[in-house]
Every structure is written in structure tokens, then in C-alpha cells.
């Protein structure tokens, strides 16, 4: 549901309801959520749902990273994995806008 919502949010950018100038290319997803919330195109519950989806992806990525042997990793590694996830989501959104 969260990625579908993010795709719908991207459509708002295409429809010019969100000014591309307000969106940071290197933090596209985060800035899309922030601008959408600030402009009233998203509510806090919708942003929260996207965050939950991203955390689910992080959780699965950590499981793969540890080969399901542990759920415990350093905060540096978790941050690197999350950064990679956001990079991939950003790249997708930038490629389809």
C-alpha cells in the first residue's frame, strides 16, 4: 500500500500540484513527503503509512543482510541499508517523473 501511495504522490508532481523546485533530487522521497504534507496533499496518517512501509523494507533487508541469523546490527549498518533503500526509491521516482 505504501509504495502505491508513493506512486500516487508522484502523479501529483506530474500534475504540477507540487513544484519540482521544492523537491531535493538527492532526497526526493523525503522531500516529496514533506512538501506533500506541508501543501495539504498528504495527511500525517498517509506519511506515517509510507514510513511504516519503508521500515518494513528495512526490516526485510536486515534479515537478508544477517541471513536471518540475527535482527541485531549496528546503527551505522542500519543507516547504510536505509540510505540504499531510499536511493533506490528516489531513483525510481526521478526516472518516472
Distance between the termini: 20 Å
Report Rg. Answer: 14 Å
Subunit arrangement of the protein: single chain
Which outline best applies? elongated
Q: Give the strand tally.
A: 0
Question: Into which percent range does the helicity of residues fall?
Answer: over 70%
Unreliable stretches = none
Report the total helices: 4
Q: What profile does the largest beta sheet have?
A: none
Helices and strands, in N-to-C order? HHHH
Structural class: mainly alpha
Bin the strand percentage. under 5%
Mean pLDDT: 84
Gist of the model:
This protein has 97 residues and is mainly alpha-helical. It has helices at 2-14, 28-38, 44-65, 75-96.
What does this structure look like?
- This protein is mostly helical and 97 residues long.
- Helices cover 70% and strands 0% of the residues.
- It contains 4 helices and no strands.
- It has helices at 2-14, 28-38, 44-65, 75-96.
- The longest helix is centred in the middle third of the chain and has 22 residues, at 44-65.
